[in-house]
Design a protein that fits this description.
Length: 224
């Protein structure tokens, strides 16, 4: 669980998103960071026995820097005002299948999969779908998957209008093949983060995504 103090720090930062305020509240930030790391450790302790591929992960592999990359953004606010956590099998890869937890007042959610894979990754995933689409169909039609996440996310900008080059438009998995991103998400209530059983409850939801992540990892590990 997160402490009320950690959540309050993020809320105060949202209203005072500047370096002067951050420097003046350095001690609060250090307390927040400790709480953030304990929160991650708690989730890792629950996840690792259920997904052995996460065993190599340490807290430091799952954190995000609080500083925003503002080089190409019109918004020059220097700090992030959400709390994110990323658990992935391949800790050395910036974009590999995994599990994500996000706290942001009024916009908290959990998610998993791989977001906007690189061109070579997308090629491998589509090849796996082409030949083993029945496996993916079984995963996303599983009762637990549907209950928690409904379906693979289909955002307009991440779905092709036509069949990808080299694929038959009549392929039985064409709607999967049109995807440019492979993620699933579920909105959650902010108050869940304050629950003493947060880690257990959230892991029960996240672990439903393991077969989905396994399928994606299988695709990415296949030699061309």
């Amino acid at each position: 669980m997160l402490s009320k103090e950690a959540i309050q720090f993020i809320e105060d930062l949202k209203n005072n998103n500047n370096t002067e305020w951050m420097h003046a509240n350095k001690n609060r930030y250090e307390d927040y960071k400790k709480d953030y790391h304990l929160h991650i450790a708690s989730v890792l302790n629950e996840m690792k026995p259920l997904d052995k591929s996460l065993e190599p992960l340490e807290v430091k592999n799952c954190t995000f820097r609080i500083n925003r990359d503002i080089r190409f953004s019109k918004d020059k606010s220097p700090y992030k005002t959400n709390i994110g956590m990323w658990l992935t099998t391949n800790k050395n890869s910036k974009n590999s299948p995994g599990y994500y937890i996000h706290f942001e007042k009024g916009s908290s959610f959990i998610a998993g999969g791989v977001w906007c894979p690189e061109a070579n990754q997308l090629k491998k995933i589509r090849k796996e779908i082409e030949f083993f689409h029945d496996d993916l169909t079984a995963i996303v039609e599983n009762k637990n998957f549907v209950t928690e996440f409904k379906a693979i996310t289909r955002e307009e900008n991440n779905v092709l209008k036509n069949a990808p080059k080299g694929y038959d438009p009549s392929h039985p998995a064409i709607e999967f093949l049109k995807l440019k991103s492979f993620t699933c998400s579920q909105k959650i209530e902010d108050k869940l983060f304050l629950d003493t059983d947060f880690s257990k409850k959230i892991v029960q939801k996240l672990i439903v995504l393991k077969p989905f992540n396994d399928f994606l990892n299988r695709a990415l590990e296949t030699e061309e």
